[in-house]
Amino acid sequence: MAFLPLYLQCVTSPRRGLEAVAAHPRHVRFGAYAVAVTGTTYLLVYFFLSRNGGRPTVFKPWLAIAPEVYYRYNLYLHVPSILLAWVAAAGFTQLAARALGGTGSFEATAAVLGFGIGIASWWTGLHDVVTTFLGYLRVIDQRWYEDAMSGSTPFHTLIWSLMLAYTAWFVMMFTTGVRAAHGLGRLRSALAGTLGFLVYQGVFALFNR
Fold first, then answer.
1. Which of 161, 163, 170, 61 is nearest to 114 (CA)?
2. Between the CA of residue 39 and those of 20, 42, 45, 94, what are the distances in Å?
3. What is the mean pLDDT of residues 47-62?
4. CB neighbourhood size of 164 (10 A)
5. Mean pLDDT confidence for 2-6
6. pLDDT given for residue 144 in this prediction
7. Phi, psi angles (nearest 5°) of residue 184
8. Where are the alpha helices (DSSP H) in 24-69?
9. Residue 134 class from Cβ within 10 Å (0-12 exposed, 13-18 middle, 19+ buried)?
10. Cα 121 from Cα 9, distance rounded (Å)
11. What is the distance in angstroms between the CA of the first residue and the CA of the last residue of the chain?
12. How far apart are CA 92 and CA 86, in angstroms?
């Protein structure tokens, strides 16, 4: 199966799709392609933000970079940070899964987590690329919109709803991926998958607010 049909199968039927990913002879390459989908999406997001006046609001940067110019640097930081987060998450998930009795390889773990990242990230990625593009076109004021997402507005409710769905889908995709790659039961897969998500999100958040 080629990459795109496999990617779409993981969207419509995550368990069957991720089982197919784990067994695919080119699973590592396809996992990297799936991560590249997220990388490309956020390359556009940070390109638009670096040119439309966007700046971090509620979630202040941990790096010693002024908020007003943070996205100019983030444009170059985000792809390496996504790759680092993916590999770190795969490593910790692999160790946890094997400790819990799993039998899968690191390569299979990295592949299924790559698809998990590439698909679950759309919950916030679609919103982010659309709104930042509208800000780039000056259809909306980016700073006003970012402030609105931080206040008591419908946009605040929207972004938190998307982030909750993002978290739920990440945990679900990582858990399902661990089951597919390691043959573990639901509880042990959930433990390893949740750890993987926490590692991924922690590394990603370090560089991306």
1. 170
2. 23, 5, 10, 23
3. 75
4. 11
5. 95
6. 86
7. -85, 165
8. 27-51
9. middle
10. 16
11. 37
12. 10
Q: How far apart are CA 50 and CA 71, in angstroms?
A: 5
Q: State which amino acid sits at residue 141.
A: D
Output the pTM of the full model: 0.91
Q: Which two tokens stand for residue 134?
A: 């509208």
Evaluate if residue 5 carries a pLDDT over 90. yes
Q: How far apart (Å, rounded) are the C-alpha atoms in residues 75 and 192?
A: 31
CA distance 192 to 185: 11
Q: 119-170 pLDDT, tens per residue?
A: 999 999 999 999 999 999 999 888 888 888 877 889 889 989 999 999 999 9
Rounded to the nearest 10°, the torsion over CA 28, 32, 34, 39 is 170
CB of 94 within 8 A of CB of 112? no
Please return the burial class of 108, using the count of CB atoms within 10 Å of its CB with bins 0-12, 13-18 and 19+: buried
Locate 194 and state its tokens. Answer: 């949740």
**CA 81 to each of CA 5, 86, 149: distance values in angstroms, whole numbers, following the listed order:** 27, 8, 25
| Chain mean position to CA 153 | 26
pLDDT at 57 over 80: no
Whether the CB-CB separation of 97 and 109 falls below 8 Å is answered with: yes
